[in-house]
Design goal:
Blueprint (H helix, E strand, L loop, with lengths): L7 H12 L3 H11 L8 H8 L3 H14 L2 H17 L6 E4 L12 E3 L2 E6 L9 H16 L5 E6 L3 H7 L5 H4 L4 H11 L6 H8 L4 E4 L17
Length: 227
């Protein structure tokens, strides 16, 4: 069994050798060239196509690295926002930089505030997963038993506020998160049917704030969405 250990530069170089400058065009070319290949000349054809185990190992390694990218963006985003957030006399009491809240209630808690961060780009249209996530954070902030100020930091407020003021059914929003759904029903029963009903009743409890200017590196259409 071949085990290949590569750093990021080696991974990139190996994949570049296979994919060239345009992977789609490269694959189309390989498909064309392999037409008519048989068992006798398959080996040389694959070698010519660059279909080597090192390239496969590089792709697998890159996939593993890519799985950590969203977490890195979340952590770096929070850290680079802190200089803009902290006020005179404000001190950090806890941070949750990894995936989820790692046992802590919020991404950030100081002596003055609690906060959640959403480093996602809203595109408009059907975005139910993002909507579910932002409702969860708004709900948990709004219902948190604390006298501290509460913030939900987002990359642009237009789409999040459009959703929060919209008519989506709350049952649908919490359907994939039984914990949040149970908490919501235990506290409110059927008092709120639509997202806007709950948001309008609780909007004064949570400030939804735009952090785009603090992390302009994330404002690009080429960047995949992240939490």
């Amino acid at each position: 069994m071949l085990v290949v250990v590569m750093d990021l530069a080696q991974i990139t170089a190996q994949l570049q050798r296979f994919s060239g400058t345009d992977l789609t065009a490269t694959l189309a070319d390989i498909e064309s060239k392999l037409h008519g290949v048989n068992a006798n000349n398959l080996g040389s054809a694959l070698l010519t196509a660059g279909a080597e185990r090192q390239a496969l190992a590089a792709a697998a390694a890159l996939k593993q690295v890519a799985g950590q990218v969203n977490t890195a963006i979340h952590a770096l985003g929070i850290l680079l926002c802190l200089p803009y957030i902290l006020e005179a006399g404000e001190t950090v009491e806890s941070l949750s930089l990894g995936a989820g809240n790692t046992g802590r209630k919020f991404d950030l808690e100081t002596n003055l505030r609690v906060a959640e961060f959403k480093f996602i780009r809203w595109r408009g249209g059907s975005e139910s997963i993002r909507q579910n996530s932002i409702f969860k954070d708004f709900f948990l902030l709004a219902e948190a038993e604390t006298g501290k100020r509460k913030y939900l930091y987002v990359l642009g407020t237009k789409e999040p506020l459009k959703f929060l003021n919209g008519g989506r059914n709350i049952t649908s929003v919490v359907s994939l998160n039984s914990k949040v759904g149970n908490q919501f029903r235990a506290k409110f029963g059927d008092s709120f049917r639509r997202v806007r009903d709950y948001y309008l009743a609780q909007e004064n409890k949570v400030t939804v704030a735009d952090i785009s200017a603090w992390v302009p590196e994330l404002i690009t259409d080429d960047l995949d969405d992240t939490d």
